[in-house]
């Protein structure tokens, strides 16, 4: 039936209407095209990179050279010079180098050169030339400028709107102790070259090695693919001295007072540890401030205690009598008849005071500082034997503590001694020494007859000349017996005896002191003759029965008429007292030695 019949529809032909593409398909096509383009660009860049880095480095190097290569110093930090307690006597503090890029400073070179010359004390014309040298992109304006000053200068430049100036770290040498031990430490000159002292002697150890940065620059910036190499700096090593800064400060002040009170030309003072030979203080006056050396005359640089030589006078009698006692030629109580004058060759020997015939013991002749009595005792020994003893005490040889310019002094060969020369050498004339030599010689008696090399450097260090010095290199050698050293010490205690001694001012209250005065004529180097001026000195040790320290003081040309007892003695007392207190050395509490002076 019609209502049951389904309506049949013809099938739609595939050509009747074209199919429609989805949007998703179109996006895939665009993505493929983009990837192809990106790949092509990267391929071009990669090919160029291969060309630059591998196939054609020469062309790139030429381009880089056209832009400019910068060589920059990376400064090493100089090692510190320290005292025995690690306190800095010389150190490196923050500083800056001021650097210019001439391609940026050329336009304002005149204004910048004026500013730098006024603020940094650099030469105007040299600086102007540097600021205009556009062949380079790196030029130093100033080195080792204090950080504060450098930053203030840069701030002024920035405010003025000038370009091309930068700062870089550059340590500055500093001497925080001023004049304390300046004679030993030395200083660096304006060109940063060491001038003297430990700064010069150990420059190689202290200096280290500067590094370098080398890179290619263009338009004020590093070119990433250009040269870029760095050699790191190697900092210098520290140098520790045996000096005690506080003791050195005290000794310098006491020495200054002694020289000024005596109206002398100069003076030296040394403090030595008896057993180790370590030098706790080595002072000169006048001296200088290491941080401002230009304010002092050049003759005050360096250490007179090592470089200046002079005839020691009667302090040398300590060595003469110790040799006589050791050789058993005399005893402390050996009797000597001392005339008012004594013929010696074609001259006459006298004493510092007028007297008739005296009856002195050997102890009396030494403690009263009789030249005649000493010569009569010394004539019992051959010149060769006395020469050998003096050599053993260290005379005639440098101490080798590591300071340039040290003098060995003069101890003539015994074969050249005339009888008159032998007489004079026995009481400290016709022989020359430096102050550290004499300190070590007196210290030999304090150390029980054993000479120990003095040291200024702790441990071991090598000088620029290749010499190894320091406490680890120190040697010792017996010169006289322990008995002879004790007998000599007992004799020297008579020198400071308040009743009979010639130098009671050298006594240190509460302590036993042994010591000897010295007064010697000075030789004028121009005429090679005695010119009427004198060296006065005092050397000794304490406590006399258990020695801890040896102190030696010498003043050149005092004009107040004083001698070794009145000038050197009080200075010795103040210095020794201060050192004993500083190291809390208690008095021994024993009674001083007493020996007969006359017979």
UniProtKB/TrEMBL annotation:
Start and end residues of each stretch annotated as Disordered: 1-25
Coiled-coil regions listed in the entry: none
Originating species: Nocardioides lentus
SUPFAM superfamilies for the chain: beta-lactamase/transpeptidase-like, Penicillin binding protein dimerisation domain
Superkingdom: Bacteria
Family classification: Belongs to the transpeptidase family.
Penicillin-binding protein transpeptidase domain: residues covered: 267-576
Gene3D superfamilies: 3.30.450.330, DD-peptidase/beta-lactamase superfamily (3.40.710.10), Penicillin-binding protein 2a (Domain 2) (3.90.1310.10)
Transmembrane segments: 31-50
Localization per Swiss-Prot or TrEMBL: Membrane
Primary localization: membrane
Keywords: Cell cycle, Cell division, Membrane, Transmembrane, Transmembrane helix
Stated name of the protein: Cell division protein FtsI
Any GO BP annotation: cell division
Short name of any one Pfam family annotated for the protein: Transpeptidase
All residue ranges annotated as the Penicillin-binding protein dimerisation domain in the record: 74-223
